[in-house]
Amino acid sequence: MSRHTRRLIFRACSNLPFSSLLDVGCGPGLFLQEAKSRYPSLRIAGIDVSSTAIERARVRLPDADLCEMDITVQTPSRRYDLITMIDVAEHLENDLAAFRNLEPICSGYLLICTLEGKMRAFEKEIGHVRNYRPGELKSKLEESGFKLERFTRWGWPFYSPLYRNLSTEIDAHHKSITLTRLALAHVAYLILLLNLPGRGDLIIALARPLG
Fold first, then answer.
1. CATH no. for residue 151?
2. Residue 158, φ and ψ in degrees, nearest 5
């Protein structure tokens, strides 16, 4: 799924003008690493609440501007043309505060990838505090000073409902990697390519600050 998510994110921002990128909740820097490989001149930065994640990202991206930070209570000091928040908003108790803290430093676009619809048991186990209701993300972005420019859906039917419904039964989030699980992951990736366009619970919102 992370490969599909990155593919969809890069498609969503392919026609946008940007020379700087901040990834909120950057983790170990996989998305930033791919962004840098696609756009070599891009100024990249990342923040995350996990010091371990930031340490791993620094190994992968020694020239990036990386910082341990909680976006719900802090605001980075620099402005960015593109800010991404991928698989993060659904984990934030105060997502509205995060959006408000991002508005002053967004000089171009905010791109959010998250989930909508029914919460599955495994999603609570991996730290989700919400799946957005229809219209909820748009409303919160507008309340935070953003205007929604584009909204897309993805995932029906093979990711949602099929994969999400079966994730617990097939132990999809097991940590250990075996050759069998790796082979199944490649098969699953190909199957997910067959999702119908414009439908599903994975949502990507592209917004611009009103100011």
1. 3.40.50.150
2. -80, -30
The residues, ordered by sequence, that sit 6+ positions from 14 with a Cβ below 8 Å of its Cβ are: none
- C-alpha span between 132 and 190 (Å, rounded): 27
Token pair for 193: 């390519």
Give SS3 for 154: strand
C-alpha separations of 95 from 38, 109, 114, 192 in Å:
29, 17, 12, 29
Residue 201 lies in a domain: yes
Nearest residue to 56 via CA among 44, 42, 41, 66: 66
Tens place of pLDDT for every residue, the chain, 211 residues? Answer: 888 999 999 999 999 999 999 999 999 999 999 999 999 999 999 999 999 999 999 999 999 999 999 999 999 999 999 999 999 999 999 999 999 999 999 999 999 999 999 888 888 888 999 999 999 999 999 999 999 999 999 999 999 888 888 775 555 555 666 877 778 788 888 899 999 989 999 999 999 999 7
The answer to whether residue 182 is domain-embedded is no
Q: How many domains are there within the chain? A: 1
* In a domain? residue 186: no
For residue 135, report the phi and psi dihedrals to the nearest 5 degrees. Answer: 85, -15
Please check whether residue 179 lies inside any domain of the structure.
Answer: no
Domain coverage including residue 84: 2-156+197-209
* Residue 88, phi-psi category: left (phi > 0), alpha (psi -120 to 50), beta (remainder): alpha
